[in-house]
Amino acid sequence: MVRMVQRPIDLPGLLRLVQGGGIGGIAVFVGVVRDHNAGKRVIAVEYEAYPAMAEKVLGEIEAEAVGEFGPLSIAIEHRVGRLEVGEASVAIVAGAAHRREALGAVSHAIERIKQAAPIWKKEWYEDGTQWLDDPGLPGTELK
């Protein structure tokens, strides 16, 4: 299960999705908005994505994790829109028979999301904004 959402992450709901009789370990990663980056005070972030494309890539990442660490159940939810410091931006939950597979799947998924998902991040500072992750794109310079 993968979803792009405009509401707060539903961690209890994600946990319910991966539970079952054969599950002996559940691993969770929750990425939250922090108040600093590169020496600047962050007051908020904004995520943009084309949901259908992003969900397709997240689904591919989910399949990779199952292929490498399965059998397991995995759920990924990523927010779009403006998020304040302390709010969850992404959650990955994996349930497997053993902890090693669940932990491996979660670690693999977040690294691949950072590398491949078409999700763009803008940081809001006290003195302006900046798009991150691709400084070569027009409009990514500090404004």
Q: Summarize this, please?
A:
The protein has helices at 11-18, 51-69, 99-116, and strands spanning 2-5, 25-32, 36-37, 40-49, 72-79, 81-84, 88-96, 119-125, 128-131.
Structure overview:
The chain has 143 residues and is α+β, with helices and mostly antiparallel strands. The chain has a single domain (2-128), classed as Alpha-Beta Complex (Aldehyde Oxidoreductase, domain 3). Helices cover 31% and strands 39% of the residues. The protein has helices spanning 11-18, 51-69, 99-116; strands spanning 2-5, 25-32, 36-37, 40-49, 72-79, 81-84, 88-96, 119-125, 128-131. Strands 3, 4, 6, 8 and 9 form a five-stranded antiparallel sheet that branches. It has a four-stranded mixed sheet with strand order 1-5-7-2, with helices on both faces. The longest helix has 19 residues, at 51-69. The model is unreliable at 135-143 (pLDDT under 50).
**Which radius of gyration do the C-alpha atoms yield?**
16 Å
At the fourth level of CATH, the homologous superfamily is Molybdopterin biosynthesis MoaE subunit
Low-pLDDT windows of residues: 135-143
End-to-end Cα distance: 37 Å
Beta-strand percentage range: 35-45%
Mean pLDDT: 91
